[in-house]
Amino acid sequence: MSITKICCIGAGYVGGPTMAVIAQKCPHIQVTVVDLNEERIAAWNDENVDNIPIYEPGLSDIVAEARGRNLFFSTNVEKAIDEAQIIFISVNTPTKTYGKGKGMAADLKYIELCARQIARIAKDNKIVVEKSTLPVRTAEAIKSILDNTGNGVQFQILSNPEFLAEGTAVTDLLNPDRILIGGDTSVEGQKAIQSLVDVYANWVPADKILTTNVWSSELSKLTANAFLAQRISSVNAMSELCEKTGADVNEVARAIGMDSRIGPKFLKASVGFGGSCFQKDILNLVYIAKSYGLNEVADYWEQVIIMNDHQKRRFSNKMVQTLYNTVADKKIAFLGWAFKKDTNDTRESAAIYIADDLINEQAQIAVYDPKVSSRKVLADLDYLETRTSEKNSANVTSFSDPYEACASAHAIAVLTEWDEFIAYDWQKIYDGMQKPAFVFDGRNILNRVALESIGFIYQGIGS
Ligand code: NAD
Ligand code: UDX
């Protein structure tokens, strides 16, 4: 089947950038991204392309090129489903906050709603693509909902997980390590796979497009995230041992990364990984393993999360200890709130948990992040429900100028690795601070020797 119309349900961090790149690379295909969130769709349609709701380097240029040509953002979900030959489901699949599997399993209610809506609206055969990250065997449930509509429409379900990382989404989408497409082994299933392969083949080399059965594809996504997060927890575990022994975790990471079997990537010790995926997907994996009675498998992967929580807590404890065991009424400047550089996403950012711990100790937090609004900072803290919103507002202030954020602070915590932090006038920052002036570098990005020569007391991770 030659594809001319695609729809994507969910205009978030995955749906938006992924569809923008498909539209750019396939001008012959009309791509419509739909979402229930009117504010988000309005922002995607904002005349000023710099106001699109997701910050990703290079994304606004692509949206500017394709929007209105063959890329459309809309709240009219039904129309888009009706017209499309391929429907991507790219809605959120957060950790369940209620009922069975609370705190572990993926909440599939948004997925099921999409499946029911597609079943209700579709009048001709459709290919439905799981773009969201889903537990292995979810396609079975989607298929069951779709096949029981009784209106004779044939559906093929494909799994096509997304491997982009935020902050590098555009380059990841333009030059993916691989595209994974899982489908049914039947003739119809193979035809559906080929239709999606043909879409990606517009810019992805054939040898990077991998096809598998549906279950392998679904499970590969959870496995990839578990392996990546495991490397970070492994190096973070070593960072604590380094601090006790005089070894330097940066040197250890470099030494082991030169072993071609280990490789240099994802070995950066940090205050702990954040983001919307790693924790959610590993918890989901743990839940799935437990549900099959595989307790050793579940315990093995759960340790990655336990280590990450420990690393965050260890960082805030160390700050309090170093600051003479009290941070009450002290101003602590946070450089960075996003979970990594080059994104405005703050989901599960380590900064939120460090702030929460320090507010418990009655610190005054001054936040500067180049892309995160003060409203978002407070919303993130309120979401934890540790204390009232008024109390959070009383203890946290956001600044649009980093030097103001650091002025008269007792300490600075670097919590995101934004490049601009490295280029700051650190002498000026030092001059404006309370003495002794401390820097807790949760990303190991600053030049320790230079800062110490200015007079800072510097503490990195793992050295
Ligand atoms: P997101 O929260 O940014 O976006 C999801 C969007 O779906 C929201 O805007 C929401 O309003 C919309 N939505 C929910 N239900 C809907 C419905 N019934 N109809 C229309 N719109 C609906 O989430 P995201 O970060 O884009 O993640 C989406 C999926 O992709 C998740 O399963 C996630 O695990 C996976 N994923 C995310 C990343 C990432 O880096 N963020 C990477 C790979 C995979
Ligand atoms: C991740 C996966 O990388 C991506 O393939 C998947 O599609 C979605 O989940 P993302 O969470 O966007 O992507 O960013 P990633 O670069 O993986 O970073 C996640 C967290 O780990 C960040 O907080 C980052 O700062 C941290 N990290 C990463 C480290 O602490 N050390 C590292 O060496 C690498």
TrEMBL record:
SMART domains registered for this protein in UniProt: UDPG_MGDP_dh_C
Active-site residues from the entry: C277 (nucleophile)
Its EC number(s): 1.1.1.22
Source superkingdom: Bacteria
Function noted in UniProt: Catalyzes the conversion of UDP-glucose into UDP-glucuronate, one of the precursors of teichuronic acid.
Keyword terms: NAD, Oxidoreductase
Reaction catalysis annotation: UDP-alpha-D-glucose + 2 NAD(+) + H2O = UDP-alpha-D-glucuronate + 2 NADH + 3 H(+)
Protein name, as recorded: UDP-glucose 6-dehydrogenase
Binding positions (substrate): 162-166, 221-225, 261, 268-274, 339-340, 443
EC top class named in words: oxidoreductase
Pathway: Nucleotide-sugar biosynthesis; UDP-alpha-D-glucuronate biosynthesis; UDP-alpha-D-glucuronate from UDP-alpha-D-glucose: step 1/1
